């Protein structure tokens, strides 16, 4: 690969299209090329991989997956994507621990709030609001004890 990169520096820094990867793959005399991206979007890592069949000039397989932001688990995330891309079984526990869940709090019941039952509340009025609240109704007030 280094020889191809030296001969054409664009391969190293600008070769993202299928056509470019097919040309590089042909120079390297390989059957397939893998192209992909690892993107951080908010609190998730999105991994996209494409397996390109160099001889037939087609994207043979592709996969995209959203994972929880756990940068130290990129290798396992990549393993999951590759296994999914090839229709291989993925270890359920590993998948669940890394998979991005859009509604993490409700899906795990962590921090779930139960709002049933009685409630008690109070408010405090000060200055002009207190004067308005205690003023008699026939004088434009609320005639209450705040």
Please explain how this structure is put together:
By secondary structure, this protein is an alpha+beta fold. 37% of the residues lie in helices and 21% in strands. It has helices at residues 2-7, 10-14, 18-28, 74-85, 92-98, 104-108, 127-134; strands at 32-41, 44-53, 58-68. A hairpin with a 2-residue loop joins strand 1 and strand 2. The radius of gyration is 30 Å and the shape is elongated. The N and C termini lie far apart (79 Å). The mean pLDDT is 86.
Give a quick account of the main beta sheet: strands, pairing sense, barrel closure: 3 strands, antiparallel
The count of strands amounts to: 3
**What is the spatial order of strands in the main beta sheet?**
1-2-3
Overall mean confidence score, pLDDT = 86
Q: How many structural domains in the coordinates?
A: 2
Number of helices: 7
Characterize the overall form: elongated
pLDDT < 50 runs, ≥5 residues: none
Element-level helix/strand string = HHHEEEHHHH
Give the structural class. alpha+beta
Strand content: 15-25%
First CA to last CA: what distance? 79 Å
């Amino acid at each position: 690969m280094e020889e191809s990169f030296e001969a054409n520096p664009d391969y190293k820094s600008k070769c993202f299209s299928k056509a470019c990867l097919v040309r590089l793959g042909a120079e390297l005399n390989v059957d397939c090329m893998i192209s992909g991206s690892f993107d951080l979007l908010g609190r998730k890592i999105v991994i996209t991989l494409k397996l390109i069949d160099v001889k037939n000039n087609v994207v043979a397989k592709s996969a995209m997956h959203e994972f929880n932001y756990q940068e130290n688990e990129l290798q396992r995330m990549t393993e999951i994507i590759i296994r999914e891309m090839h229709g291989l079984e993925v270890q359920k526990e590993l998948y669940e621990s890394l998979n991005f869940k859009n509604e993490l709090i409700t899906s795990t019941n962590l921090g779930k709030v139960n709002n049933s039952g009685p409630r008690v509340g109070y408010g405090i009025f000060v200055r002009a609001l207190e004067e308005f609240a205690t003023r008699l109704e026939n004088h434009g007030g609320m005639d209450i004890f705040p």
